[in-house]
C-alpha cells in the first residue's frame, strides 16, 4: 500500500455506504512515509470537497474516478464540475475551461441566497403577532413559546418597516439609540489665548481672582442652565442662573458679575457659549483649554457634584 512515488488514495467501501466517506491519503518523500486520513461528512459539497476535486482534475482524473474516491454519484460530480467551471487565461487571447474551487464556492453561496422562499405576511400571521404583542410578548417569545412559525428576525423586520402597523417605539424592548459623540465645533475661533500661554502665577495658583468658567444644564431640554465660575486659588464659586446656553446669555451674566467681583482672568473650554467672551472681557486675559482636555480646568470640573447639589437650592430660591 505504501509503495510507489506518486500519491495513492484508497476509500473504505464498507464505510462509504454509510453517512461518511473515509479518504486515506498516502505520500512518499524519500525514506519518510506519511499517512493522513480525512473524514468527509455526507451532504452538500463544502470547500474541502471542492479543493480535492480541483486537485484531481489537474491530475486528469475522470469524473467517475473522483466519484468513487469521494463516495458520491458520478452525476453529482458532473453537476459540481459544471457549476464550478470557468475560463482561465493561459496567455494573451487564449483561454481554457478549468474547474475552480473558489469560483464553485462563490456560485454555490449565491444560489443558496436566491433559493430562500420569501415569507408572505398573511392576515392570520399578522393577527397572531399583534395579539401576542398586546399581551407583552417579545418576538422571541412569540416564536419559541407560542409556536408562531415565523423567523424572529422576520418579525423584527416587519416591525421596523411598518408592515404590522406599529413603530419601533411600540416594541416591548425598543433598542436604545447610540449617543452622539461630542465633537469640537469646527467653527470655533478662540478670541483669546491658548492655555499654553497662561502665566505661571495662574498655573501655580498664587493669586486670587483667576477663574475657570463652565455651564451646567439643569435638564436635557433647552431651558435654564447654570453659569459657574470657580476661583483657582480659593475655590470660591460664583453661580448664576441663565435662560439658555448661548453666548449672549453668558455675556449678559458675565457683564453683571464683573461689576460685583474682581475677576483678573478667565479659563474656558471650547464650547460655543464662550466664543464671544472677548466682547465683555479683555482678550489678553482669556485662556482656552484644549479640546477634550477637561483636566486642564481641574478646579471647575472637580466641583461637578457640588454644582448639582446646589441646583435644587438655587432653583428653590429663584422660583419661590
UniProtKB/TrEMBL annotation:
Q: Give the domain of life.
A: Bacteria
Sorted keywords for this record are: DNA recombination
Q: Which residues form the Integrase catalytic domain?
A: 195-283
Per the record, the GO terms for biological process are: DNA integration; DNA recombination; transposition
Task: List the GO terms this entry assigns under cellular component, sorted alphabetically.
Answer: cytosol
Q: Pfam families attached here?
A: HTH_38
Which Gene Ontology molecular function entries are recorded, alphabetically? nucleic acid binding; transposase activity
Task: Note the Gene3D superfamilies from the entry.
Answer: Ribonuclease H-like superfamily/Ribonuclease H
Task: Output the InterPro entries linked to this UniProt entry.
Answer: Integrase_cat-core, IS30-like_HTH, RNA_pol_sigma_r3/r4-like, RNaseH-like_sf, RNaseH_sf, Transposase-Integrase, Transposase_IS30-like
Protein name from the UniProt record = IS1239 transposase
Q: Which organism is it from?
A: Streptococcus suis
Q: What is the lineage of its organism?
A: Bacteria, Bacillati, Bacillota, Bacilli, Lactobacillales
Amino acid at each position: 500500500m505504501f509503495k510507489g512515488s506518486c500519491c495513492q488514495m484508497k476509500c473504505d467501501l464498507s464505510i462509504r455506504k454509510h453517512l461518511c466517506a473515509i479518504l486515506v491519503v498516502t505520500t512518499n518523500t524519500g525514506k519518510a512515509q506519511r499517512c493522513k486520513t480525512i473524514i468527509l461528512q455526507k451532504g452538500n459539497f463544502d470547500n474541502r470537497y471542492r479543493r480535492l476535486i480541483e486537485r484531481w482534475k489537474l491530475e486528469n482524473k475522470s469524473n467517475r474516478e473522483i466519484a468513487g474516491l469521494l463516495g458520491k454519484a458520478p452525476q453529482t460530480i458532473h453537476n459540481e464540475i459544471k457549476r464550478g467551471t470557468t475560463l482561465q487565461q493561459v496567455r494573451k487571447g487564449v483561454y481554457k475551461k478549468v474547474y475552480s474551487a473558489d469560483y464553485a464556492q462563490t456560485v454555490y453561496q449565491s444560489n443558496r441566497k436566491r433559493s430562500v422562499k420569501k415569507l408572505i405576511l398573511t392576515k392570520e400571521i399578522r393577527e397572531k403577532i399583534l395579539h401576542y404583542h398586546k399581551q407583552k410578548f417579545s418576538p422571541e417569545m412569540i416564536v419559541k413559546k407560542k409556536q408562531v412559525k415565523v423567523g424572529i428576525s422576520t418579525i423584527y423586520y416587519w416591525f421596523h418597516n411598518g408592515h404590522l402597523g406599529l413603530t419601533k417605539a411600540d416594541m416591548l424592548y425598543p433598542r436604545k439609540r447610540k449617543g452622539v459623540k461630542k465633537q469640537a465645533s469646527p467653527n470655533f475661533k478662540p478670541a483669546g489665548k491658548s492655555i499654553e500661554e497662561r502665566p505661571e502665577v495662574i498655573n501655580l495658583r498664587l493669586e486670587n481672582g483667576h477663574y475657570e468658567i463652565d455651564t451646567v444644564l439643569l435638564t436635557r431640554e433647552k431651558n435654564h442652565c447654570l453659569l459657574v465660575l470657580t476661583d483657582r486659588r480659593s475655590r470660591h464659586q460664583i453661580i448664576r442662573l441663565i435662560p439658555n446656553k448661548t453666548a449672549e446669555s453668558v455675556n449678559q451674566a458675565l457683564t453683571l458679575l464683573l461689576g460685583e467681583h474682581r475677576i483678573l482672568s478667565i479659563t474656558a473650554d471650547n464650547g460655543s457659549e464662550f466664543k464671544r467672551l472677548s466682547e465683555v472681557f479683555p482678550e489678553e486675559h482669556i485662556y482656552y483649554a484644549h479640546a477634550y482636555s477637561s483636566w486642564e480646568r481641574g478646579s471647575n470640573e472637580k466641583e461637578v457634584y457640588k454644582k448639582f447639589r446646589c441646583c435644587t437650592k438655587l432653583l428653590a430660591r429663584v422660583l419661590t
